[in-house]
Structures are given as structure tokens and as C-alpha cells.
Amino acid sequence: MDDVKHRVRKLKKIEAKIRWNGEPSPGVSFVWDDLFDLRNAPTPASRAKYNFKVLSNMNREEYKNIVDDFFARVYYEYYLENGITGAKLYDPSVLALLDLPFDANEQEVKKRFRELAKKHHPDKGGNAANFIELMKAYEKLTN
């Protein structure tokens, strides 16, 4: 169990090295804080996606997928903070809303959007609020 905590804490140090050369400014927001909380039970104030109990019950493949997602989010923030453009950058949090992997390409985004649009379109019996949220997410990805 301590091994899980050690590995996850190490990710925060790695994020600091990647994004700020090891020296984060006061008040900066870590991607790590959005994903991990090493307390046993989640608290109402925690915005983390995974707590210690969930992490300790994961198999190797599940943990690997979470770490991959973590690094995709870290590098996305790094690219934004440093004005790096050129490659098609998709916000990993928006991709997650569409239930797409962090490495989804343009064709996968379009295909998934169309599937969800058919499902949530108000004319097809879907929820209008969900459809609007879907449209906003797709707009973020395509702009």
C-alpha cells in the first residue's frame, strides 16, 4: 500500500519538473490535484478523480491507463503554458467527457461526436441539456 502512495506522490514531483523545471510558482494548479487524493475516503472538498482506496484496488493495466492520462494532461498544460502549437492538441478533460482516449485523432473525435449527437439530439428523444453540453465540448475540440 505504501508503494502505491510512493508511486503516485512521485508523479507530482515529475509534473513539477516537466512544467516548471522543479520549481512551481505559488498558487499554481497541478494536474495531479485533479486526479489524485491519497486519503482513504474522498472528502466533499476533494476534486480528485481517484482516491487511495480506488488506486490501491486497481490492476496494473488500469493504473497504466491512469498514468498515461495523467501525462497527456500534464503535457497538454505544458504546451499551453509555453505557447507550443503546431500539432493538433485536444484538451484531455474534454476528450474524457466524450469518453475518448487522450490520444484520439480527428476522425475518432468526429465519429464519437456523431454517435453522441444522434443519441442526445432533442428531435430523437434525447435530453436538450446533454446535447448542448455535447455541442460545447465538440466546439472546444474543433476550434
- N→C terminal distance: 43 Å
Shape: globular
What is the count of β-strands?
2
The biggest beta sheet is recorded as: 2 strands, parallel
- Mean pLDDT figure: 88
Number of domains: 2
Given helix and strand content, the structural type is: mainly alpha
What helical percentage do the residues reach?
55-70%
Radius of gyration: 17 Å
How do the helices and strands follow one another from N- to C-terminus?
HHEEHHHHH
Q: Unreliable segments (pLDDT under 50, ≥5 consecutive)? A: none
Number of helices: 7
Beta-strand residue percentage: under 5%
Indicate the multimeric state: single chain
Key features?
single chain, 143 residues, mainly alpha, Helix Hairpins, 2 domains, two-stranded parallel ribbon
Quick structural overview:
This protein is an all-alpha fold and 143 residues long. The chain is 61% helix and 3% strand.
Summarize the helices and strands and which ones pair or pack.
Layout (H helix, E strand, L loop, with lengths): L1 H19 L10 H5 E2 L12 E2 H5 L3 H22 L10 H6 L8 H15 L7 H15 L1
Parallel strand pairs: 1-2
